[in-house]
Amino acid sequence: MKALELDAIACPTGLVLRPMLESDLPQVLAIERDAHFTPWGEQAFLDAMSTGDVLPIVLDGNEIAGYGVLKVLWREAELLNLSVAKSWRRRGVGRFLVAELLQSASRYNTPQVFLEVRESNVGAQTLYRQMGFEIVGARKAYYACPGGSRENAWVMRWQEEGNKHAA
Ligand SMILES: CC(C)(COP(=O)(O)OP(=O)(O)OC[C@H]1O[C@@H](n2cnc3c(N)ncnc32)[C@H](O)[C@@H]1OP(=O)(O)O)[C@@H](O)C(=O)NCCC(=O)NCCS
Known about the structure:
- By secondary structure, this protein is α+β, with helices and mostly antiparallel strands.
- Helix content is 29%, strand content 34%.
- Strands 1-2-3-4-5-7-6 form a 7-stranded mixed sheet, sandwiched between helices.
- Strand 2 and strand 3 form a beta hairpin.
- It is globular, with a radius of gyration of 15 Å.
- The protein starts with a helix and ends in an 8-residue tail after the last strand.
- The protein binds coenzyme A (COA).
- Coenzyme A (COA) binds next to strand 4, helix 4 and helix 5.
């Protein structure tokens, strides 16, 4: 997906974008627990904030609709977290956050972004594919599941237009 197209993905009407703050964490942790079987804890978010990761959140007034975490590495970045509150799903928040994170990656001169996603998480995979990610690998038994079993992950990659044959 071209940068120009990412620019065109607007914040859903009435919502506001800003970086995550420490004071957001109680609400973020509640969304996190509701969204993931192995949610991030407070320390993971504090570490992400203190190491310069990109943490956009989208709000409706004081209510957090969703957030993401991008770790910027050398010439590549990892999309580490993307979570939308249940009451805000299927309203374009996830799409907007991914567009924001990819534009951040481009600004940091990291033309490739990787992520891992559960094999069963077809909704997230659909969103990522729409945003230009493609499957480039797999990780066997990567995620814990209820009941003690494990689930495979797909590794997906996005490449900025014009850098598709780099690396
Ligand atoms: C995955 C997630 C971030 C999507 O957020 P969202 O705000 O609901 O996504 P959007 O509304 O922007 O969806 C954009 C498109 O992605 C696809 N999509 C999103 N969720 C989907 C689902 N559950 N099933 C099928 N397609 C889905 C659709 O094509 C959708 O467009 P449409 O609503 O016009 O059909 C959200 O469901 C979530 O937080 N899930 C729990 C945490 C999670 O799985 N995070 C990703 C971990 S890798």
